[in-house]
Amino acid sequence: MRIIPCWVLIVHVAAGIAHSQTFNELQVQLGAYTLSDNGGERPLGVWRSTGPLVIGKPTSSTFSVGDTCDAFTVSSGGSLREDATTAWRIELTPIRVVRDAVTFRLRWIRLAALRQQIDQVSFDSSKASRSPKEDIELTLRPGESWPVDSVPVSSGAKTVDGQPCRGRAASIRVSVDSYPSEEVDRRLVVADLWLVERLSNGTEVQRSHALSVRGLPNRPFRFYFDSIVDANVSLDIYGMLIARLESGAMAISVETRSRWGHSSDSRSGGPQRSVESVIQVKPAEIVEIRLPRLGDGAGTFARREFSIRIQARQLR
């Protein structure tokens, strides 16, 4: 079993990743959404992805919205809907990746959906300079997104059952996600976790039932240990981990949260602390993360020493 203090870990995994030019586990996506005046933003299931990220490789898309409420189409070759009222030409170019933070260039133009106009306008043409457009550099992590543009739905647009689309808008949003998408990823990872306390006499005590949690690679899944109660003070240790598959091993990012307070009032929360660590786990290996002490504000738990032990493997 390897023992690693949690505050040393993050540096090593970050170092070697940024030099690679292809990132098979990450993608940038553009998605079509609809907005209503009395509700939230809702995805329409119309997406365009870069696929696995390749630094410097542009991905071009043409989005067009029609004269019904949710009428969106996307293409890679510039084709439009027959009833298109507005169109966007969008280009994404990955610039760099550091750990899971993706920096990319986003260029877009919004135009009235006339085919001859779309075909003739480039990002740098004089016609483009008279249209709404943007050319920016963004950095996003998986789960984060950015609103690209939105337009009101045509005043004459109707729903499929003939009702007017009052107060609606069509929007496009860019996001970073793991690759492949969650709906098609068949891989599965299992992680077994134990919470251990090291006593002042050098012995160890397991402070929670062993946990076995499962999830998809490159996506967070949560764990919760049993509460520990001492002198009417309750300590909860829980968190989130992300497993990344590597050749012959697995890189696991762990965010561990500790929360303590009077056990009689479970709804009030209490002081919290969060620490992050990154470990590499080989098959059949158990790795221990030693958590820093909570400090004087944690009462009876201030000087106590806890560790999380992790064993992980790929099921399929």
What is the average per-residue confidence, as pLDDT, rounded to a whole number?
86
Number of domains: 2
Strand content: over 45%
Tally of extended strands?
22
* End-to-end distance: 25 Å
> What is the N-to-C succession of helices and strands?
EHEEEEEEEEHHEEEEEEEEEEEEE
Largest sheet: 6 strands, mixed
From the structure provided, what is the oligomeric state, counting identical versus distinct chains?
single chain
Radius of gyration: 25 Å
Derived structural class:
mainly beta
Q: Write down the overall geometry.
A: elongated
Low-confidence parts, pLDDT < 50 over ≥5 residues? 8-20
Helix content estimate? under 10%
Separate helix tally = 3
At a glance:
This protein has 3 helices and 22 strands. It is mainly β and 316 residues long.
Q: What this model shows, in words?
A:
Residues 8-20 have low confidence and may be disordered. It contains three helices and 22 strands. Strand 8 (86-98) and strand 9 form a beta hairpin. Strands 1, 13, 14, 15, 21 and 22 form a six-stranded mixed β-sheet that branches. With 316 residues, the protein is mainly beta. The chain is elongated and about 80 Å long. The protein folds into two domains: 2-15 and 185-314, no CATH class; 26-178, no CATH class.
